[in-house]
Amino acid sequence: MTTVTIAGPDLRRFLDGLPGVDSVGAEARAAVLASRSIKTTAKRLALDLAISMIDLTTLEGQDTPGKVRAMCAKAKHPDPADPTVPMVAAVCVYPDLASVAAAEVKGTGIHVASVATAFPSGRASLEVKLADVRSAITAGADEIDMVIDRGAFLAGHYQLVFDEIAAVREACGKEAHLKVILETGELVTLDNVRRASWLAMLAGADFIKTSTGKVSPAATLPVTLVMLEAVRDFRESHGRQVGVKAAGGIRTAKDAIRYLVLVNETVGDDWLDPAWFRLGASSLLNDLLMQRTKMTTGRYSGPDYFTLDS
Amino acid sequence: MGKFEYAPAPESRDVVALRESYGLFIDGDFVPGQGDGVFKTISPATEEVLAEVTEASPADVDRAVSAARRAYERTWSVMPGRERAKYLFRIARIIQERARELAVLESLDNGKPIRESRDVDIPLAAAHFFYYAGWADKLEHAGFGPDPRPLGVAGQVIPWNFPLLMLAWKIAPALACGNTVVLKPAETTPLTALLFAEICQQADLPPGVVNIVTGAGPTGRALVAHPGIDKIAFTGSTEVGKEIARAAGRRKVTLELGGKAANIVFADAPVDQAVEGIVNGIFFNQGHVCCAGSRLLVQESVYDEVLASLRRRLTTLRLGDPLDKNTDVGAINSPAQLAKIRELSDAGEAEGAERWSAPCELPVKGFWFPPTVFTGVSPAHRIAREEIFGPVLSVLTFRTPAEAVAKANNTPYGLSAGVWTDKGSRILWMASRLRAGVVWANTFNKFDPTSPFGGYKESGYGREGGRHGLEAYLDV
Questions:
Q1: Is B5 known to be catalytic?
Q2: Which of B5, B273, B427, B446 would you mutate first to test chain A, the one with the most A CBs within 10 A?
Q3: Which residue from B228, B214, B238, B245 is spatially nearest to B109, judged by alpha carbons?
Q4: Do B228 and B336 reside in the same domain of the chain?
Q5: Does residue B237 share a domain with residue B219?
Q6: What is the pLDDT confidence band of residue A306, given thresholds at 50, 70 and 90?
């Protein structure tokens, strides 16, 4: 793999020339890693690590300032009864509520992520997308979760997708971290996932992210495996580390631990950090807390013992 | 120490009820041997003695063969196929029901990781019984004539690398076709065969249809030489296979022997999955696999990339307690096998190949060998020609598809081969030229009861599995 600047037909040749992914093999590998048995001290560590990697998310039409404030309170104190629980990594909201979120988490170290670029479909002009991004940053977002133009990608217009990501990267400037959502459920094949991962990284993504959570399937283990291999190979050839965010469909502590195992055995310690791996989720946090309490007390508590997200 | 170390997650031994000593399983009952020979079977991971097992004498073998003959003549060969099928289905179900017990016992006695015995050996053993149960009443449709007849009493000798699975490969088709059997498991791994004898009792299998005689080489020789045996089936080393072929006379024989399989990686291969396939090809079951991909042939243009990825991947392999659910690489089955692996590895170094082992701590007790890769291997080196039967990979390179085929076929063996490429036409081109019984495309070490398995050249003859596997147990 080369480090030369690539554009136009060269970009296409480069992406199409990436090594293929055998989906049967990738799924088999993910399945073996999913069978790892994480117990006792390892589970304890994994639960806290997973909590600290969460982008606590609400992306609904019915979101209100009240809902966002409640979620931010939860982000700061996931379990009010237990101060040893770590804070989550970020809260993730629509741009119009970013200012509410920013005010709530100010000074805590929790990041404010905002989806932008006509999330979730990405069907708008570049000007509209960039305006969306700028408004989110102005409102206090320091992480932008953009969506790629899947239509352009599937039509083979890689350069268009590249230019759009590069433009958003520029709009983010130094104020905001850029996560690029590939929406792998619409790219369908693992070959496409690898190509889109490289395309996003070459265009300047700080993070690559699986899904919006609005399309099924959202994050899956094989897709995340391929993306982890991509960031590993990209760092080797380009010397820059890119993060990965698995988002959507991760609801239980068991699911989350499987992702951590995948990170651990594919890219290792360098990515086992909220700065480099995130879990985008809304309902996951309470299951992690429930498992955590179970490990401390030896008993499961009912859902009434854990606070609602809103 | 990494950030995320996995705590021990051992499978419980409590599901297994080991007896202190085991007799022979003859004519439906556990009976003491007529000689006074006994031997101990140990856990290769800890050297702990698991049980004492009877060494069958020639007189014991004779008793077992006579029991099998009686059962053949009076019961099993005259029983309608659909009735035989019921017993086989029942055995298959009991294997599933007792899967955890069988898996733990297999890992204890053999040293293989519980993940493999749980996810591969035991489910496949059950699948073989299910598959051949289905054939028992349909033999006239198998393509061997309108009413193919069984052969009689089969003498079966199996190896220690997949003890219960090899038993299933042997017993399921034999019984489905109407034969009765006397089976000798390997002396280092007799316990799951003895548990299988209990399963036969539990399934109410008529006495004498399955007989299990334990012992080492002399017992095997007595079994193979017994005039009452109509059919010999052997899986094991090529050396012993040749001896059996000489002793067989005019009796029907199937031999599944050694291998030195080529795993061929082309430049356009899906590289991450190819690396997984290389790992699975040679480090699965500690390389104690006759069809192991022990020779890696890499296209020279991607050699550096593939080797770098392979080394990186090997550093993540988890070697240790076979009963830990997170263990990838278990113990070497016996001190004798460990000595052989060491001898050949040392020869590889002495002949000028470069040795690299994955950095992993070996337990103090038991028999262990780290996953090892030799580079700079030439086709003339012993490690490129002789079967090591351990976690040792020899890496060679090639430039063109024709050269890959020539190098892959340049071996006295011919059991299996693997081809990794994104190009479908090349897979077919290669498969038609590789002289190996099994050619895997973009995968390796995949087994299925419906698929025939067997070798070319010194890897043996006859096929096991699938419709083809019936032929070995029918008078055709």
A1: no
A2: B273
A3: B214
A4: no
A5: yes
A6: confident
In a domain, B131, yes or no: yes
Question: In the prediction, which pLDDT does A308 show?
Answer: 80
Asked if B124 and B138 sit in the same domain, the reply is yes
Are residues B253 and B268 part of one domain? no
Question: Helix-strand-coil percent breakdown of chain B, rounded to 5?
Answer: 40, 20, 40
- A300 has a pLDDT exceeding 70: yes
The whole-model pTM stands at 0.96
Average pLDDT for B92-115: 98
Q: Looking at beta carbons, which residues of chain B come within 8 Å of A36?
A: 6, 325-326
Contact B442 A24 (CB under 8 A): yes
Find all residues with CB under 8 Å of A291, minimum gap 6, and list them: A43, A47, A253
Q: How far apart are CA B166 and CA A167, in angstroms?
A: 61
Residue B408: which CATH number? 3.40.309.10
- Contact of B358 with B328, CB cutoff 8 Å: no
Determine the residue among B1, B5, B6, B326 to mutate to test chain A binding: the one whose Cβ has the most chain A Cβ atoms within 10 Å: B6
CATH number at residue B218: 3.40.605.10
> Token match 């990838």: residue?
B328
Strand partners, B372: B357, B392
DSSP string, B304-335: HHHHHHHHHHHTT--BS-TTBTT-SB---S-H
Among residues B40, B36, B39, B41, which one has the least CA distance to residue B57? B36
**Residue type for B312, please?**
R
Burial of B399 (0-12, 13-18, 19+ CB in 10 A): exposed
Instruction: Indicate if B216 and B279 belong to the same structural domain.
Output: no
Q: Report if residue B11 sits inside a domain.
A: no
Q: Is residue B374 part of a domain?
A: yes
Q: How confident is the model at residue A5 (pLDDT cuts 50, 70, 90)?
A: low
DSSP-assigned beta bridge partners for residue A180: A146, A208
pLDDT at position A2 over 50: no
Within-domain flag for B5: no
Closest CA to A15 of A28, A2, A29: A2
**How large is the average pLDDT for residues A98-105?**
98
Range of the domain at B76: 21-257+456-473
Provide the pairing of β-strand B24-26 with B29-31.
antiparallel
In the block, residue with structure tokens 């090997």 = B314
Q: How many domains are contained in chain B?
A: 2
Q: Which residues contact B145 (CB under 8 A, 6 or more apart)?
A: B476
pLDDT in tens, B418-449: 999 999 999 999 999 999 999 999 999 999 99
